[in-house]
Amino acid sequence: MEREFMEFDVVIVGAGPSGLAAACRIKKQAAESGQEVSVCVVEKGSEVGAHILSGAVFEPRALEELFPDWKELGAPLNTPVTRDDIYMLTSAEKGSRIPDLFVPKTMHNEGNYIISLGNLCRWLAEQAEALEVEVYPGFAAQEALIDENGVVRGILTGDLGVDREGNPKEGFYTPGMELRAKYTLFAEGCRGHIGKQLIKRFNLDSEADAQHYGIGIKEIWDIDPAKHEQGLVVHTAGWPLDVVGTENTGGSFLYHIENNQIVVGLIIDLSYANPHLSPFDEFQRYKHHPVIKQYLEGGKRVSYGARAICKGGLNSLPKMVFPGGALIGCDLGTLNFAKIKGSHTAMKSGMLAADAVVEALKAGREGGDELTGYVDGFKASWLYDELFASRNFGPAIHKFGPLMGGAFNYIDQNWFGGKIPLTLHDTKPDYACMKKAADAQKIDYPKPDGVISFDKLSSVFISNTNHEEDQPVHLTLKDPSIPLEKNLPLYDEPAQRYCPAGVYEIVTEDNGDKRFQINAQNCVHCKTCDIKDPSQNINWVAPEGTGGPNYPNM
């Protein structure tokens, strides 16, 4: 069909930290060199920030480069870190604080801020619009436009007003538009669905280790002012993730932000082996540990969300560029897992890509080439140095476990500054780590008490998640028979548990037959199913624009 189109010099997919930093940098650099460069940012959330979720302790290095006057401009960095407390939890009741002397240097947070990344992105969008970037929330990029020569020429946004069978709904149908560009930057966040297609199409990961992921689950609480210590950062390792039978690693965070609020969360490596494990339920019982519960008692939970993170680091980076475009931020995988921080690295990657785009446009190039300047700039930047120094952090924990891996990382980071003359590799994909259900220990999770711990449905409710129900299901199965015929007998269908939003259910009918039910309207867009399904049978694609969570301050 013939579609309407708009043309830009640059289209950016995703209004997260990397996409917005890239947009602002392009406009600033172009203005300095007297160029007119048109830039469009599309965002699938109902507003900028609606789908943004992060811890987040924020390192302002890239922000200071992008906007040296960020304080005067009112950037929402309101809570400097005042203290770091790191605990090793040895059981459901016990734990001890780790002396600073034995903490890897990367875990210290002097000079950093506790922020809402969603609110920072809202602020960045304001700066972008002031620089005359066109920002379009509520438009989901559905696929890349690739010409007959294999060059990316922009993106196609999804159709609106389509029923579950894919038919236009009378009076509601609006066909998607082509947004054509000389260069297209993909900043969709972790496991971007177009980024995944581009990696496969252009074989971008042929020389990279397997990407590795975690799932981060987070809540915001209003707490008793007497228990609040603005600027306090608490991290934990150990329980509940080292319980017998889970063979899993990860850690938690609890940050005291402004307005007598805390954010509390758990990150679980998606390399876990036990199919009976439920990341959501691990998080709920974790909150009952005395180290954490002391802050929550008497408080009220006000928000919930979840998101996958890329944690493979330098070893897992695919090729960054392809004809007509580039991957940036978590679409590329730039998070520094040794610091548990990815916002400043995402912003820097976007800025490096922006510099290469401005250079290419200034030279009169029209997008048929690769942005080699981005690759060169990356290799010469502090971003590369930082990712190189942390390249062993994740593989050490995967190979040697949290205790011996932690010891290796302490030596690597504190004694060698991340330059130990050895590079560890972890080439086994996370989905391939899962044991058969018969070979794994079942886990008995306590029932939520409705005070400290909660169920999935009440949690999804406060994530403000909403989808138009009469639309194609955006969680597609490559083979609909696999959940019941393979995953259920072999793995007790782990989708019932790894999804933190109750999207997947095994329903038993009155006659005893079972069916696999997908409650797509519950989806918080975390992408865990796309990553962890042991049969790699679930493919997450973007639903209609504005669908999904609406996070106010995540």
From TrEMBL:
Residues in domain 4Fe-4S ferredoxin-type?
Answer: 514-543
Per UniProt, the cofactor note for this protein states: Binds 1 [4Fe-4S] cluster.
Q: Which reaction does it catalyse?
A: a ubiquinone + reduced [electron-transfer flavoprotein] = a ubiquinol + oxidized [electron-transfer flavoprotein] + H(+)
Cite the Gene3D superfamilies for this sequence.
3.30.70.20, 3.30.9.90, FAD/NAD(P)-binding domain
Q: Give the top-level enzyme category.
A: oxidoreductase
What EC number(s) is this enzyme filed under? 1.5.5.1
Its biological purpose: Accepts electrons from ETF and reduces ubiquinone.
User: What is the protein name for this chain?
Assistant: Electron transfer flavoprotein-ubiquinone oxidoreductase
The species this protein was found in: Halopseudomonas sabulinigri
Q: What is the lineage of its organism?
A: Bacteria, Pseudomonadati, Pseudomonadota, Gammaproteobacteria, Pseudomonadales
